[in-house]
Amino acid sequence: MDPELILALDQRFGEPMDAYVNGSQVWLRDDGPDGVTLEWRLHPVAGFARPPAVSTYDLFPAVALALAEDLPPPAPLGRLWDGLEAFAAHGEELEPAPLAAAATRALGRAPDATGLVDHEGIAEAWEKVRGRISIAAALFAQLDV
């Protein structure tokens, strides 16, 4: 996770359309191959704890604003999020290469990894330990990164 990614998300996508108490930030955008709706999900770190000074919905905007103004964010990025994932929002089957190309065009930076993953297995593992594993690390493990 780096400040440039947060700033790119803010500048290109704006505020998330949804935020969850588990720390996830979500954008739905029609910028996939052939206009497919992509879900962009900023995944929380393992054991995420929201900083007490901001609400669930204000977290991303507060962090992005602080970074844009070269101020300290409400918490270090390494305690908030550890990965961004883009995937077909409504279950469409997308090949990794066209999805990666569309994601690169939308965000202005190439993904660190591409491929197919078992979201259901990752979700089950995450729920089993009540969020004390990194979803981003689980994704990278399945992609052999």
Write a structural description.
The chain has 145 residues and is an alpha+beta fold. It has one domain (3-114). It is 35% helix and 15% strand. The protein has a 4-stranded antiparallel β-sheet, with helices on one face. Helix 1 crosses helix 2.
Widest sheet, order of strands: 1-2-3-4
Structural class of the helices, strands and pairings? Answer: alpha+beta
Note the total helix count: 5
According to DSSP, the number of beta strands is: 4
**Beta fraction:** 15-25%
Distance between the termini: 15 Å
Note the main sheet: 4 strands, antiparallel
Total domain count = 1
Q: Which stretches are poorly predicted, pLDDT < 50 over at least 5 residues?
A: none
Write down the overall mean pLDDT: 96
Compressed to H and E, one letter per element, the order equals HEEEHEHHH
CA-based gyration radius: 15 Å
